[in-house]
């Protein structure tokens, strides 16, 4: 596997069911489209929902830490926060953030497809 120099922000929410999952994904996708995706270095936002209907992960990929830092320094953080608050207020169900601290990450190891490792 080639090294991944991307930088990630992983947003984690607990929700009260599949309907709220769908609503939260739609709302956060709109936030990405209106407030984030046009910044240099933005690569994607992937939304993962748990099969039991209780969790939503939004994994935002940036080309580099520098691109993410530029976004943080130059974006309208107040406007984006207001849009997120409005999105959460508009849900028919309950959604609670589960992040503690700044939810940013780098990849340190990845195992790709290949032959089975044996002890022999």
Q: What does this 3D model show about the protein?
A:
It is a single chain. By secondary structure, the protein is α+β, with helices and mostly antiparallel strands. The chain contains three helices and five strands. It has helices at residues 18-36, 65-74, 77-89; strands spanning 7-15, 42-49, 55-62, 95-97, 104-106. Strands 1, 2, 3, 4 and 5 form a five-stranded antiparallel sheet that branches. Helix 1 runs antiparallel to helix 3 (77-89). It is flat and about 55 Å long. The chain starts with 6 loop residues before the first strand and ends in a 14-residue tail after the last strand. The mean pLDDT is 94.
How far is the first residue's CA from the last residue's CA?
23 Å
Mind describing the biggest β-sheet?
Answer: 5 strands, antiparallel
Helix content: 25-40%
Rounded mean pLDDT score: 94
Rg value: 17 Å
Can you count the beta strands? 5
Give the class from helix and strand content and strand pairing.
Answer: alpha+beta
Range of strand content: 25-35%
SS summary, helix count: 3
Secondary-structure element sequence? EHEEHHEE
State the shape: flat
Low-confidence stretches: none
């Amino acid at each position: 596997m080639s090294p991944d120099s991307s930088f990630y922000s992983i947003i984690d929410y607990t929700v009260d069911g599949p309907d709220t999952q769908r609503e939260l994904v739609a709302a956060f996708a709109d936030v990405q489209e209106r407030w984030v995706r046009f910044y240099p270095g933005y690569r994607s936002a992937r939304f993962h929902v748990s099969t039991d209907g209780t969790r939503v992960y939004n994994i935002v990929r940036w080309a580099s830490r520098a691109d993410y830092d530029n976004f943080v320094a130059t974006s309208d953080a107040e406007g984006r926060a207001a849009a997120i608050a409005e999105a959460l207020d508009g849900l028919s169900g309950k959604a609670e953030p589960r992040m503690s601290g700044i939810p940013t990450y780098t990849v340190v190891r990845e195992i790709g497809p290949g032959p089975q490792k044996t002890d022999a």
